[in-house]
Design brief:
Pathway: One-carbon metabolism; tetrahydrofolate interconversion
Mean pLDDT: 90
Strand order of the largest sheet: 1-2-3-4-5-6-7-8
GO biological process, one term: tetrahydrofolate interconversion
Radius of gyration: 18 Å
Order of helices and strands: EHEHEHEHEHEHHEHHHEH
Distance between the termini: 20 Å
Low-confidence stretches: none
Cofactor: FAD
CATH class: Alpha Beta
Number of strands: 8
Number of helices: 11
InterPro entries: FAD-linked_oxidoreductase-like, Mehydrof_redctse-like
Protein name: Methylenetetrahydrofolate reductase
Helix content: 40-55%
Strand content: 5-15%
């Protein structure tokens, strides 16, 4: 992605992930975060896409607004699950009509149960690699894909997972953004596997996904739904901060979460990552605190 090579505040560029709001109040919160991040100068912002296309219309509308009404570069998520090829073509056309040329092509999770059985639409696509090729055939798009430092939960092993990622990159994807993770070594091992499997594809940007933890209950639920893992030592540290009462000590958990995200980011920067991608949950404060600790004078950008 060309934006990663442009001037940026701090040691590396950063980017932000948003998700479509469920109601007017949540949408107002999203736009407050958007305006704060706009002043920080992220390389790009991405907008997620609900399981089975459940947020298709909101995703299309808000990504269009981001393109028209802000200075941000929006990346639209697009998932294959639950859609025919004709519907996918229409979605890509809808993005193009609004000037959106950056798409993150994903296989997607089944609606209802993200860890449930993945069933191909009878007139749809089976794999993200096919979606990458479809998007590329429809116009001049910059296409990214997802990657999984711990391995995708549907992959039988890490070698298979690496081959799937390399196939998506060979299909024309220009970069990859990882699922959130909490062990930097998992990310570094993924990067090494891709380079070993195909040095040419391994040279493409592999962007780590970081989520500053602000709630123990929330992160445990997110990890469960994603098929990821919260390392035992981190869970223990967060649990100690949360306390033993009926309600967790959110401020203490948040403080630990900011520390952890900062430490991860510092090590990733030292390891030469091309960008830091923050899962914002449509809030700006936690990410901005991490960026400040990293010495990124983002508000002056």
């Amino acid at each position: 992605m060309q934006r990663l090579a442009e001037p940026h505040p701090g040691p590396v560029p950063f980017s932000v992930e948003f998700y479509p709001p469920r109601d007017e109040q949540a949408e107002a919160r999203l736009w407050r975060a958007v305006r704060i991040f706009e002043r920080m100068g992220p390389a790009f912002v991405s907008m997620t896409y609900g399981a089975g296309g459940s947020t298709r219309d909101r995703t299309l509308r808000i990504v269009g607004q981001l393109a028209r009404e802000t200075t941000l570069l929006p990346v639209a998520h697009l998932t294959a699950v639950g859609h025919s090829v004709d519907e996918l073509r229409a979605m890509v056309g809808g993005f193009a009509d609004q000037g959106i040329t950056n798409i993150l092509a994903l296989r997607g999770d089944p609606p209802g149960d993200p860890l449930g059985e993945w069933i191909k639409h009878p007139d749809g696509l089976e794999y993200a690699e096919q979606l990458v090729r479809l998007v590329q055939e429809l116009g001049d798009f910059n296409v990214g894909v997802a990657s999984f430092p711990e391995g995708h939960h549907r992959a039988p092993d890490l070698d298979h997972d690496t081959r799937y990622l390399v196939s998506k990159l060979r299909a024309g994807a220009q970069y990859s953004i990882t699922q959130m993770f909490f062990d930097v070594d998992d990310f570094l091992r993924l990067r090494d596997r891709v380079v070993a499997a195909d040095p040419e594809q391994g040279a493409k940007p592999l962007i780590p996904g970081i989520m500053p933890i602000t709630s123990l209950a929330s992160v445990r639920r997110m990890v469960e739904l994603s098929g990821s893992v919260l390392p035992a030592n981190i869970d223990k540290r967060l649990a100690a901060a949360a306390g033993g009462g009926p309600d967790e000590d959110r401020e203490a958990v948040r403080a630990v979460g900011i520390d952890l995200a900062t430490q991860m980011a510092q090590r990733l920067i030292a390891e030469g990552v091309p960008c830091l991608h923050f899962c914002s949950l449509n809030f700006a404060k936690a990410t901005s605190e991490v960026l400040e600790r990293l010495g990124m004078n983002v508000m002056a950008a």
